[in-house]
Amino acid sequence: MKKLKLGVLDQSPLGPGEDASRALRNTLALARVADRLGFARYWVSEHHNAAGLAGSSPEVLISAIGANTSRIRIGSGGVLLPHYSPYKVAENFRVLEGLFPGRVDLGIGRAPGGMPLTSQALRGEQAKANEARFEEMLKELAAYLEIGEPLPPEHPLSGLKATPGVRTAPEIWLLGSSGYSAALASHFGAGFAFAHFINGAGGQGAVRDYRSHFRPGPLGKRSRATACVFVFCADSDAIAEREAAAMDLRLLRHERGEYGLPYPTPEEALVYPYSEWERERVRDNRNRMIVGGPETVKRRLEQFADGYGTNEVMVASMMSDFRLRVRGYELLSELFIR
After folding, report:
1. What is the pLDDT of residue 298?
2. What is the CATH number of the domain that holds 84?
3. What span, in angstroms and rounded, lies between the C-alpha atoms of 267 and 231?
């Protein structure tokens, strides 16, 4: 197996007792750490009306991250295209590419990133129409970025160009947690990132199908695959397990629709009176995580990458203390990068 490349997916979480401003400052601080430690990519997510996550505008965050780093690739994990005009997304990322040429990734998702009321606020009457024409939106985006075929003469926006007219274009990825996104990525030539941290089953098959059906297209010329997984890496298995217990409770609350509650502390998780059904849900959700000290994480992360047939993995870490998040990435760098 080739040397494993690691990237970071940062959802800008609000830890216990933290506000959104602190979470965003932590994102910039962690990006500087990842850049210094040699991580390959730093992606930020898009969530709306989410009390525990501060990242609602990836384009703005990417700009700030780019100004705070010098080497690492920076991007979206991802921009939720059905909410927006493909033309405006193209302009945003051409500006980013002009500022940070050769470093920008445009990761695209099709999930709402929030509740139906949020989708209505973002898209208005276009909500259902944009979902139905997602593939057409991808073609339009490629045309505006000048990496795909121009819009045909009969198209009402034919000839329109997205500015600024920079020489380079972002690397395009489609993000998903199902085979549908993999099929789209292979058809359009995009990279494919499977969200294992959302769906812990079926990702390996989706990536295999992506590779076997890949063909060059308007969004790229070569296959590129990665998978994103929750990783709780600490100086010992015990510390990592304590931190993962807080995520166990957080995921359980989300499954019950309790999105407005603050991030649980490890202390809360350790005394929570789980029912047998809830314990079964915790066991199932652990398929979305890699938990342990350095040697445990090294072994399991290598097995994870081997299962996906990829030499690149995106790591999402949500510890209760920012210092523990930083320490986790330092350990990962010692294991795989330095």
Report:
1. 97
2. 3.20.20.30
3. 20
